[in-house]
Amino acid sequence: MTDRKALAGTPDEQIRLLLQKITDAGNSGVDWIQIREKDLPGRALTELVREAIPRVPETCRILVNDRLDVACTTGAAGVHLGGQSLPVPEVRRFLREQQIKNDFLVGSSSHSLEEAKAAEDAGADYVFFGPIYATPSKVAFGEPQGVERLAGVSRRLRIPVIAIGGIAAKNAHECTEAGASGVAAIRLFQDTSDGKSLSRDLLTG
Q: What is the tens place of the pLDDT at every residue in 60-105?
């Protein structure tokens, strides 16, 4: 996931650096990159996504946080929905009506087994579950869920469960061992200077 405001420089410099980070991550073997720039106006976000997509290989899919309109108009691979986003069934209905490509991904954030199951039943392709570990960015979502709850959710769902919240190189393997299909993070990927080594370490545990 991205957070341009965590990068140094002026707003324009942050965008340029973010695009380089996206390029590096895509070339390092990352499967998905969620562009999570919630405060960017629609036009600026659209420009960012359009510029990001050709910078990564076909094996890396660009997802857009919340903004279904931007995801569809830019040809992004999917949209990730949060608690205040459109409901998953409404998104699915829109995609059918607009005949958007069948492989368009719809993801949803969840903070309990009940929320995760509801997202799956509504037609989500994957869920984020967390926070797994303590992290300042997820304080609003309560106490850390921990790997035991992650394991329980992963066992109960048929769709991929992605662990989020406090993920670091030292604990990512605990999440995959608990059954998570992958991990999501901002700082872990955005702060690294060697994305290929990081991806290799995450894959090998």
A: 999 999 999 999 999 999 999 999 999 999 999 999 999 998 899 9
| Separation CA 91–CA 79 (nearest Å) | 9
107 vs 164: CA distance, rounded Å: 13
Whether residue 4 contacts residue 37, with contact meaning beta carbons closer than 8 Å, is answered with yes
- The pTM of the full predicted model, rounded to 2 decimals, is 0.93
Domain range list for the chain? 4-198
Class of domain 4-198: alpha beta
Rounded Cα gap, residues 113 and 153, in angstroms: 6
The confidence score (pLDDT) of residue 196 equals 78
